[in-house]
């Protein structure tokens, strides 16, 4: 099958294909998603197939309004409306208890809950409205690889397996949404996957103290969100995280061991060590926002560097605010390993 590249002027065609059961990758503010009609079992199964996704890992249902979600859910959490008013459309996914039989059963992978998200992207909101159906939307990458933040990344992984990709340029945030469990109205909301909406921000905006799933604080704990247990976001090349003060030692180590090293860091670090390493991918600036936006693109670019690399050295950031989400993904790509000077 030839995968089509749809421009923003071709949303109608993409919506028709999505509605009728085709697989349509769409842009969001976080990463590109692999869309399929959430009510059609065959289409949802194809999503698992083309991604090579384990079938115990549930999918997020993408909607164009909160009103839709209200139709699907039995009892809403007392904070649901507040969270939606503050963060939707945006990178916050809500795990809710749903009525039976609304979505294809594969969507929830055997769990009694379904997660919902309204993405902050005009093109995709229009796609969803025009299609008139809720759409599953896992990240549009081969399972285990870094999530796609451009049309080209999706095309690289899924060309010939899906009907088309709606192209809206690079995504703004760069890592997947915050997943928060509000399925039990009696319990405090719990973050299952960190993203751009942070624990600190929710506290600041709403005065609500949410918790973290234990596995986010202690790696030995089993995650509540099935997807978080898999090795994820990993390029083929080995990745080592480097703390700010360790860059000179890390570069020296690579040189002494005649390793071809790629560097993924902000411009300050890259400018200093470019001459001593095989390849660099500099984030746009030295902020954590730029690092988060560039992380997956950088891992993919270095993984495909012309000269094959022995190791990717990637900048570690402090684990606060957006740094929690960035480090959550980078640690998985690096199998938790830091360069030890
Ligand atoms: O930003 C995003 O969320 C992107 C864009 C495309 O919207 N989508 C995305 O989907 O990251 P995916 O499928 O790659 O990740 C969904 C995560 C997985 O870790 C999955 O286990 C978890 O959400 N999840 C989905 N439904 C769940 C549920 N009912 N209970 C617990 N975790 C759930
Ligand atoms: Mg994913």
Automatic annotation (TrEMBL):
Stated name of the protein: Threonylcarbamoyl-AMP synthase
UniProt keyword annotation of Cell wall biogenesis/degradation present: no
Compartments where found: Cytoplasm
Family assignment from sequence similarity: Belongs to the SUA5 family.
Start and end residues of each YrdC-like domain: 8-197
Catalytic activity: L-threonine + hydrogencarbonate + ATP = L-threonylcarbamoyladenylate + diphosphate + H2O
InterPro entries found in the cross-reference section: DHBP_synth_RibB-like_a/b_dom (IPR017945), Sua5-like_dom (IPR006070), Sua5/YwlC_C (IPR038385), Sua5_C (IPR005145), T(6)A37_SUA5 (IPR010923), TC-AMP_synthase_SUA5 (IPR050156)
Pfam families, sorted: Sua5_C, Sua5_yciO_yrdC
Coiled-coil intervals, chain numbering: none
Organism (species): Tetragenococcus solitarius
Cited function: Required for the formation of a threonylcarbamoyl group on adenosine at position 37 (t(6)A37) in tRNAs that read codons beginning with adenine.
Alphabetic keyword roster: ATP-binding, Cytoplasm, Nucleotide-binding, Nucleotidyltransferase, Transferase, tRNA processing
EC number: 2.7.7.87
């Amino acid at each position: 099958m030839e995968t089509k590249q749809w421009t923003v002027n071709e949303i109608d065609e993409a919506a028709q294909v999505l509605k009728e059961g085709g697989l349509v990758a769409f842009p969001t503010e976080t990463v590109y998603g692999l869309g399929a009609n959430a009510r059609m079992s065959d289409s949802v199964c194809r999503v698992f197939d083309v991604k090579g996704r384990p079938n115990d890992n549930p999918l997020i249902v993408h909607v164009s309004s909160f009103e839709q979600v209200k139709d699907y859910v039995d009892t809403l959490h007392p904070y649901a409306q507040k969270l939606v008013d503050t963060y939707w459309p945006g990178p916050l996914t809500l795990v809710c208890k749903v009525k039976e039989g609304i979505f294809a059963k594969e969507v929830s992978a055997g769990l009694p809950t379904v997660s919902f998200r309204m993405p902050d992207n005009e093109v995709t909101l229009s796609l969803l409205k025009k299609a008139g159906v809720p759409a599953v939307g896992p990240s549009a990458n081969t399972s285990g690889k870094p999530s796609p933040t451009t049309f080209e990344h999706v095309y690289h992984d899924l060309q010939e397996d899906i009907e088309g990709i709606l192209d809206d340029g690079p995504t703004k945030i760069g890592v997947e949404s915050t997943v928060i469990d509000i399925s039990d109205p009696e319990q405090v909301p719990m973050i299952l996957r960190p993203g751009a909406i942070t624990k600190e921000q929710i506290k600041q905006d709403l005065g609500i103290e949410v918790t973290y799933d234990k596995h986010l604080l202690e790696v030995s704990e089993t995650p509540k969100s099935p997807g978080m247990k898999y090795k994820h976001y990993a390029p083929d090349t080995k990745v080592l995280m480097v703390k700010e003060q360790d860059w000179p030692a890390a570069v020296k180590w690579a040189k002494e061991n005649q390793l071809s090293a790629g560097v993924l860091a902000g411009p300050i670090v890259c400018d200093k060590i470019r001459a001593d390493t095989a390849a660099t991918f500099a984030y746009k600036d030295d902020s954590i926002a730029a690092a988060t936006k560039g992380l997956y693109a950088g891992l993919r670019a270095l993984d495909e560097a012309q000269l094959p690399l022995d190791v990717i050295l990637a900048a570690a950031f402090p684990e606060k605010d957006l740094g929690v989400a960035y480090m959550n993904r980078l640690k998985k790509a690096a199998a938790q390993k830091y360069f030890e000077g």
